[in-house]
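Chapter summary example.
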Amino acid sequence: MKQTRDELLWQQSNTDNEIAKTDREVASLGDALNAKQAPMMIAQTRLEARTQRPGVELCRDAAQHGLTGEVDSLTGTMRALAKQHRAAQEVLDRLHRTMQRINNDLSIKENSLGIDVQCMRVRQSKLNDCDSSLAQEFCIPAQQQQQQQQQAFLLQQQQQQQ
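The structure predicted for these 162 residues follows.
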């Protein structure tokens, strides 16, 4: 049981490290996603302002294509970052559930070890304390037990002979 407890402590430590690492990754992806918001808003505002210029209808020049490409590129990047962020968050949630299970198992093992230690103490005290009447029933030394068995056997033989 102690080996199982040690294994759970090792798993707890590793899971804690993984949680910290994944938490940093989630924060980093969130920061990267937020960092793309401002350039996206600027590109969209420029594109909208360009399409609503007075006197110019459906102008498809290099600047228009460049802004459209920039918006498309930023949109794709933001989708990819959002997907990675969701995946990392799911991993983090799963790690938290695993940590909760490990902590629960560890608590159970610690309790079991405590009960085992208490049982061993009680058992040892009962074995060492053969003076009490209850203990004498269970703690008769081997020699006394053999003597009693021999006496019972001799008594039985004497009764059969009579």
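To summarize the output: The helical segments are 2-51, 62-128, 133-138, 142-161.
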